[in-house]
Design brief:
Order of helices and strands: HHEEEHEHEHEHHEHHHEHHEEEHHEHH
CATH superfamily: Alpha/Beta hydrolase fold, catalytic domain
Structural class: alpha/beta
Number of helices: 16
Number of strands: 12
CATH architecture: 3-Layer(aba) Sandwich
Largest sheet: 8 strands, mixed
CATH topology: Rossmann fold
CATH class: Alpha Beta
Strand content: 15-25%
């Protein structure tokens, strides 16, 4: 095949590559094998695991350690999808001392775990361990979706304890603006719904996964049409596969946490009204006094723009920067444009709000 022939008949060769990639996919498996960024488990507590990411070739440039807080019902592998497309690897290579708390996969006996447990136990204990390991008094928090919500709750309840910077990505705070979820949430009050959840224990992955798909039926059909059209492009298909495999691998949602989030957050909008109680304390977001960067997906249907950008109104004593990007909910952390539109500006912002280590030697922490 010479370049002139390919240029003259591009569709012909796209068809050939579609066939080649399809045969390889069904005979040898995925076109890209997911590879984790080097890491070590530095602490385990209850259901949670604290992971520290390693970079043998780059030194840590910034003193303030960074903790990623993932959402519930999904595996945190979304932050470390595949070689060449990993938010975790991007931040490590930028020079951050990076950690992530993995809340684990809920079993039936975990059905009574509530949002309170994550906010007042799991996250504080992880932060405490990072402070102990690094010797630094403050950390930067990064939370996507509910991970950002729980990071906000922690920072407000503990009145900024050990937090210097906070990044939220597609994290709503005004649930009155989360149409249609604020309407659908009322279904939880129908007779037998809560009892049914109690009998199941945890919300099975097929319910949460397909629940989101039902909301975007046309988009789901379009995804498969687009896949066929792009099957000649190996890199595009590899990216599609890793995202699709991650979606297919959702995990159970603790029953108590699900009921609490649907009822108190979405249906009753208690966070916005100042009526949300976590543990034995009411959440007052105005107590947050840290630097905040919030990414708002302008095409996000899970966390609509008005529900996310409201954060600026509820944090009057913080310097809140809003970053609007034309991405959807998953695209914000793992889409093809996420490295340029989210990861890079996030890293630059964190760097500007963290003390740089002047020594040319790698930190011993």
């Amino acid at each position: 095949m010479d370049l002139k022939e390919i240029s003259a008949n591009p569709e012909k060769y796209k068809t050939i590559w579609r066939i080649v990639n399809f045969i390889e996919r069904i005979t040898l498996g995925p076109l890209t094998i997911p590879i984790e960024t080097p890491n070590e488990v530095v602490w385990m507590w209850e259901k949670s695991t604290l992971i520290r990411y390693l970079s043998p070739t780059r030194r840590i440039r910034f003193r303030t350690p960074v903790l990623i807080v993932p959402p519930l019902m999904v595996k945190p592998t979304i932050f470390d999808l595949r070689p060449g497309h990993s938010m975790v690897a991007f931040l490590v290579n930028y020079g951050f001392n990076l950690f992530m708390v993995d809340f684990g996969i809920p079993r039936r006996h975990d059905r009574y775990i509530s949002v309170d447990h994550y906010v007042t136990e799991f996250i504080p204990e992880a932060i405490k361990k990072i402070v102990e390991l690094t010797g630094e008094k403050e950390v930067s928090l990064i939370g996507w979706s509910m991970g950002g919500i729980m990071s906000l709750l922690y920072t407000a309840i503990f009145e900024n304890l050990h937090v210097r910077n906070l990044v939220t990505i597609g994290s709503p705070v005004d649930y009155g603006k989360m149409f249609p979820f604020n309407i659908l949430a009322r279904l939880i009050e129908l007779p037998g719904v809560k009892k049914g959840i109690d009998l199941m224990g945890n919300i099975p992955p097929f319910i949460t996964k397909n629940g989101f798909r039902i909301l975007t039926p046309l988009k789901n059909i379009q995804r498969y049409i687009t896949l066929v059209d792009h099957y000649w492009d190996r890199e595009w298909v590899a990216a599609y596969e890793t995202i699709n495999d991650w979606i297919e691998d959702f995990i159970p949602y603790p029953g108590e946490a699900f009921k609490q989030f649907v009822s108190e957050f979405i249906k009753d909008d208690k966070l916005r009204k100042g009526q949300l109680k976590i543990g034995n304390r009411y959440v007052d977001l105005s107590k947050i006094r840290v630097n905040v960067l919030s990414f708002v997906g302008t095409t996000d249907i899970i966390a609509p723009k008005p529900s996310v950008e409201a954060i600026k109104k509820f944090l009057p004593h913080s310097k809140v920067e809003l970053k609007y990007v034309p991405l959807g909910h998953i695209g914000l952390v793992a889409g093809s444009e996420a490295p340029e539109l989210v990861w890079k500006p996030m890293a630059e912002w964190l760097a500007s709000h963290s003390e740089e280590i002047k020594s040319a030697e790698e930190t011993g922490n």
